[in-house]
Amino acid sequence: MLALIETLFDIICLRKGPDAIPHSTFLLVIITAMWLVAGAVMTLMTEELDQKDFVIGTLTGIAGLLVYAAIVVLSGRRARLMQAIMAFLGCGALLSLLFVAGNVFLTPFLSENISSLVMTLVLLWTVPVEGHIISRTIEKHWYVGVGIAVAVFAFQMMLYSVMDPVTTSAI
């Protein structure tokens, strides 16, 4: 398990690609569970979030995965799909847990504004990470991957606003 977390961390740092994750259905189940648990922990540990946010966040996450899956399949790289999905889910889980840890440990030492800024930057790092994952999966330049990730992020934000217009109007 430690080797998996280390590999996911290397992907987050853009040092490895999804091909570093073993192709395994059992591992996919473990990583999916890890993603769901990380989402639940993030919801429980963040005052502004509730059960509805967890459900909507999970649904928008799945929608983003479906878009990425379609891109992988349409690019002719179907054999890499499982590893890409595991990379998206696993890196998402680690970044969510890093967000929670930062919130818990930074907020007492920094002002709430600075802590919120740092944690927002952690969450925004998902875009270049997802760009890296998709670019390595479909063998395109990193900038193409980041462009795709930005488009998927925008799609997810639009979907979130449709599912919960009250929250997004407050932002």
The number of helical segments is: 8
Q: How many domain modules? A: 1
Q: Residue ranges: pLDDT <50 for 5 or more in a row?
A: none
Instruction: Return the structural class.
Output: mainly alpha
Features:
171 residues; mainly alpha; 0% strand; globular
Give a written overview of the molecule.
The protein is mainly α and 171 residues long. It has one domain (21-170). The protein contains 8 helices and no strands. The chain has helices at residues 2-12, 25-45, 51-74, 81-106, 112-124, 126-138, 142-163, 165-170. The longest helix is centred in the middle third of the chain and has 26 residues, at 81-106. The model has no long low-confidence stretch (mean pLDDT 92).
Short description:
The protein is an all-alpha fold and 171 residues long. It contains 8 helices and no strands. The chain has one domain (21-170).
